[in-house]
């Protein structure tokens, strides 16, 4: 089973979350900045993650989602997460990513989820990497 996690990260926290997920489900994690759309074939599971920047995913994640060709995600399971600060003003980038993947025809699984950082530059709150591993394993138990 082939699982890919595509992420963006300004300070490295979302990257750490993506890498923890990749390790737990024996998939790979790649920065959206290094990803080429042609490599989207042959996937069983796609997870997309972004820091929340101004209540939304980053511009690089937004561009990536917009540029996915229609129908390209048909038959691929997909899920979404973000990293965020604990505040009632946080917003929800994971939900927006989830909706965009759904619009592109992916078979959505799991609930969009946020993992918390203490401050803008991090670090992640204690146990968030473990929570990320568990979340990914629940999505993709067969790996
Ligand atoms: C320009 C900017 C805007 C941000 N806006 C939000 C926001 O709307 N809601 C929130 O919870 N966190 C916000 N943050 C904090 C980020 O969520 C935090 O920096 C991120 O989770 C860290 O992950 P990273 O190290 O992968 O970039 C913002 C950070 C930056 C730099």
State the gist of this model:
The protein is of the alpha/beta class and 143 residues long. The protein has helices at residues 13-25, 59-67, 93-103, 128-139, and strands at residues 3-7, 28-31, 45-51, 77-85, 107-108, 113-117.
Give the topology:
Layout: E1 3-7, H1 13-25, E2 28-31, E3 45-51, H2 59-67, E4 77-85, H3 93-103, E5 107-108, E6 113-117, H4 128-139
Helix pairs in contact: 1-4
The structure holds flavin mononucleotide.
The site of flavin mononucleotide has 20 residues, from helix 1 and strand 4.
Question: How would you explain this protein's 3D organization?
Answer:
With 143 residues, the protein is of the alpha/beta class. It has a single domain (3-139), classed as Flavodoxin domain (Rossmann fold). The chain is 31% helix and 22% strand. Strands 1, 2, 3, 4, 5 and 6 form a six-stranded parallel β-sheet that branches. α3 (93-103) links the parallel β4 and β5 (107-108).
- Pairing-aware structural class of the strands and helices? alpha/beta
Radius of gyration over all CA atoms, rounded: 14 Å
CATH superfamily: Flavodoxin domain
Overall 3D form = globular
As a percent range, the share of strand residues is 15-25%
- Name the poorly predicted regions: none
């Amino acid at each position: 089973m082939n699982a890919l996690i595509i992420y963006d990260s300004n300070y490295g926290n979302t990257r750490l979350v993506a890498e923890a997920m990749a390790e737990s489900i024996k998939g790979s994690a790649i920065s959206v900045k290094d990803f080429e759309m042609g490599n989207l074939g042959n996937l069983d599971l796609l997870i997309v993650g972004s820091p929340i920047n101004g209540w939304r995913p980053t511009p690089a994640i937004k561009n990536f989602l917009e540029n996915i060709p229609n129908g390209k995600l048909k038959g691929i399971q997909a899920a979404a997460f973000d990293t965020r600060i604990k505040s009632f003003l946080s917003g929800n980038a994971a939900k927006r990513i989830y909706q965009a993947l759904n619009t592109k025809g992916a078979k959505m699984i799991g609930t969009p989820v946020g993992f918390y950082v203490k401050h803008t530059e991090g670090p992640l709150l204690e146990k968030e990497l473990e929570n990320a591993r568990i979340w990914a394993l629940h999505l993709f138990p067969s790996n």
